[in-house]
Amino acid sequence: MSVKVKEVADLVGISVRTLHHYDAIGLLTPDGTTEAGYRLYSDENLEMLQQILFFRELDFPLTKIKEIIHSPSFDRLEALELHRSMLLEKRSRLDTMIATIDKTMQHAKGEIQMTTKEKFEGFDFSHNPYEQEARERWGDEAVDKANAKAGSMSKDKQEAMAQTMNAIYAKLAGLRSGSPDSAEAQAAVKEWYDLLNQMGSYTLEAFKCLGQMYVDDERFTKNIDRFGDGLAKFMRDAMAVYADTNRK
After folding, report:
1. pLDDT of 149-197, one tens digit each?
2. 163 within 8 A of 116, measured Cβ to Cβ
3. How far is CA 118 from CA 103, 113, 121, 155, in A?
4. Is residue 226 within 8 Å of 123, Cβ to Cβ?
């Protein structure tokens, strides 16, 4: 069975432009075309598209997905088992975050009291789901050094680091209605810079580029803005000010 590109787009819920892009970058090339030049997708193409969308749901970059699914060692069943395991983990984390939202609403109404720790249950920045992209942008050596530092930490140290990260996000969220070059914002961003350099090695330029990625990459924006709408943009601007000011 062959399906036209518009029918695939309607079936899956993605745009024709996205399918054209997947074809252009060699991620998903349809097996045929009509006499008029319209793309035709086979059952095998649709199975591959399903795999791609599972990986996208798990925030894998397209370059990494292409590398995985076009590898000679790629096993579709094994990949599906991996998808299932990772999605269950993601569902568990989201369920925890929803529970945190419910408790926070009750807290805001004065119905219950929440501890500081309870306010941030479900947030976990102790691992980096975008490691592959970091490798592509800054190279394996920098990422390997960061991983080595994180791996050498005890579990208690890693948990303490994650709590510190969440606390800085929360602090910056509370400042985001002000100016990114304010003394308070710059002090908080310095804490962020110092913390990142405990885990890796960031130059001021890399720090500034990281802030820009918070806005350019919707996955970063989505995660950071959980602490407050517009936080990613505020952090980008504050990090740029910090980098420009301190390298003069």
Report:
1. 555 666 677 778 788 888 899 999 999 999 999 999 999 999 999 988 8
2. no
3. 9, 10, 5, 19
4. yes
The DSSP result for 103-120, as a single string, is HHHHHHTTSS---HHHHT
Q: What angle do CA 54, 56, 57 make, to 5 degrees?
A: 65
Task: Look up residue 33 and give its amino acid.
Answer: T
Pairwise CA distance, residues 154 & 71, whole Å: 35
CA distance 55 to 145: 26
- CATH number of 123-246, picked from 1.10.490.50, 3.40.50.2000, 3.30.1300.10, 1.10.8.60: 1.10.490.50
Q: pTM for this structure?
A: 0.47
